[in-house]
Design a protein that fits this description.
The structure is a homodimer of 333-residue chains.
Chain A (H helix, E strand, L loop, with lengths): L2 E2 L3 E3 L4 E10 L1 H4 L9 E2 L10 H19 L9 E6 L5 H7 L5 E4 L6 H14 L5 E8 L1 H8 L15 E2 L2 E9 L5 E6 L14 H20 L8 E4 L3 H14 L8 E3 H4 L11 E2 L1 H17 L5 E9 L3 H5 L6 E9 L1
Parallel strand pairs in A: 3-4, 5-6, 5-7, 8-13, 11-12, 11-14
Antiparallel strand pairs in A: 1-2, 2-10, 3-9, 7-9, 10-15, 14-15
Helix pairs in contact in A: 2-3, 6-7
Chain lengths: 333, 333
């Protein structure tokens, strides 16, 4: 039986990371993790005509780069799982088209990177695939005009607001090959604590992260002490504090082990307020920082918990709250 | 090895349909398949405040009904796979929330029903799940105002335009239980033949359906004669004719076996032009008509090929064409 406890699953076959790539924009390159990102563009259009096309370009670039680095070919990749924040997931639809790989579009808002890794692990472990690609992206300018206001309006940002990361990340998972490997997965459940402030995604997502983390600890009988690093996707400073406080209250001592991708990618001088967000936040930090550090064995045992605010401007205008979700993936060297 | 040929996979364990449910609006209830739909609403709001909330309501209703009919409980369902056409997949996010089931959001436009069935089959066959729910929906009024014009504008519809089905469908798949069963799957690849007319989705999707069908026939060494029914999702009259012509040209004689859900759900008197479309089209026809008829053994061997136009109004305004995708699921009694 693969199921452990209520929501966690063991990946019984060896599912390894045989390649990864990230790409970011100028602000991310100038941030504290800038040295981790080889591929970047100073031009926010990435040489394309529009922000949306720039986002699709980032996905294409990441796919091309992963395939090249892993010395494989598109025809050897069984499935590609991709998604993004844009309406109709256009970053992915226009990004993965042209590679001639069977494609599953997913939508998990900023939790997409972990969602794709979970679905891909299931397909490899179940014997359906030898190699799968997991890709996601976000673009600050495209996201702002879609979810809030076009940048030209010069709208003031609230202190709890986050800055959507311009970036993409792609991971190639392979059967019996590569490292680190994925050993456990814990798909998330929607968690809606009735937050309605579209400028406070950290608070909307934090309860989902807490729910997934605590159910994972209960399922596996482990505590934060069993891991080197516990990394949420993009809760930012506001959401990170909520999760830290709550874990402490529940007697889970995460000490210095618990970090958040949205806090790592920008520093306080960069005017990102509560920190980074967007599918590209956890994707670029995973592919630019976490996986390379795991290959150097800085971290050997990591919980990657990408968090998504399933926020729809239409539904918020109609008085609905913002549901959150958090998917967990455990990487081990 | 489960893979057959280039893109097709055999489901080796028994993955059966242990429950299904559909719900539709007034126009669908008055159509040729009206007698198939038990659950319907004459009110296009389904008693809710907005069209978007009506769509979420349909998903909730279908989930509740499937669970009730199958005499199971939410806690016995391992995963729910759901998606829809609305931005940020709100029909699903607000529809599945509250059921406390691990949730994978997917986006495959109108191909979503088949995409969820494929992902769910993989998870059951691979030993990750005993029971999974697959749900999708669309709503005419919500889709029109999002993708084209608000209905209040009274915009004229072109002859190739389709009518988005107001409806939802849900399938409960179980290990070693229920019938028909899913025996083969063939996930689609993006196919972009540079169609840019947002009022001609049938032509945008038809090439993807042809691609998936022909690669499936080649992979399995079968022809249309091996099946009782070949059903595309929502190509409508325009797309159906393209696929029929092309199959004939490639010497695949589909004769009277090839039908399209978009042609079955409305008749010519209903002013639906080329026919029905939307995620809810193939979902409601599958759950209201195909699966019940398979249980009566009218059909024993069906290819269900849900087709998606990955159309983004933003990208079309930016001069991009409309990519299509088609996912195939084989049901057998």
């Amino acid at each position: 039986m693969k199921k452990i406890g209520k929501r966690t699953f063991k990946i019984e076959n060896y599912v390894g990371v045989s390649g990864y790539s990230s790409i970011v924009g100028d602000k991310e390159k100038k941030g504290p993790l800038g040295h981790c990102f080889e591929n970047y563009s100073e031009d926010e259009y990435f040489g394309q005509e529009t922000f949306e096309k720039a986002e699709a370009f980032m996905q294409r670039e990441v796919i091309r780069d992963v395939i090249e680095k892993a010395k494989t070919k598109p025809e050897d990749i069984d499935f590609i799982y991709a998604g993004d924040l844009l309406n109709q997931c256009t970053g992915s639809n226009y990004g993965v088209g042209g590679f001639d790989i069977s494609y599953f579009g997913v939508y998990g808002a900023c939790s997409t990177m972990a969602e794709t890794l979970i679905l891909a692990s299931i397909s490899i472990d179940g014997g359906f695939a030898e190699k799968t690609l997991c890709v996601t992206s976000s673009h600050f300018c495209a996201a702002e005009r879609q979810f809030r206001f076009p940048l030209e309006y010069g709208a003031q940002r609230s202190s709890t607001a986050q800055w959507t990361v311009t970036g993409a990340g792609g991971v190639l998972l392979s059967k019996n090959e590569g490292f680190p490997r994925i050993t456990e997965i814990s798909p998330g459940v929607i968690c809606d604590k009735k937050i309605t402030d579209i400028n406070n995604m950290g608070t909307a997502m934090a309860p989902a992260a807490i729910q997934t983390l605590i159910s994972f600890f209960e399922d596996t009988g482990t505590t934060p002490e069993n891991y080197d690093l516990i990394l949420t996707g993009d809760l930012g400073h506001v959401g990170h504090e909520i999760v830290s406080d709550f874990l402490k209250r529940e007697n889970y001592d995460a000490k210095n082990k618990y970090h958040d991708c949205g806090m790592l990618i920008y520093d306080h001088s960069q005017d990102a307020h509560s920190g980074g967000s967007g599918c590209g936040c956890s994707a670029s930090v995973l592919c630019g920082f976490v996986l390379p550090e795991m290959r150097k064995r800085t971290y050997k045992n990591v919980l990657f918990v990408a968090t998504g605010a399933l926020m729809s401007p239409t539904m918020v205008l109609q008085g609905e709250s913002i549901p959150g979700i958090a998917h967990l993936v455990r990487f081990e060297v």
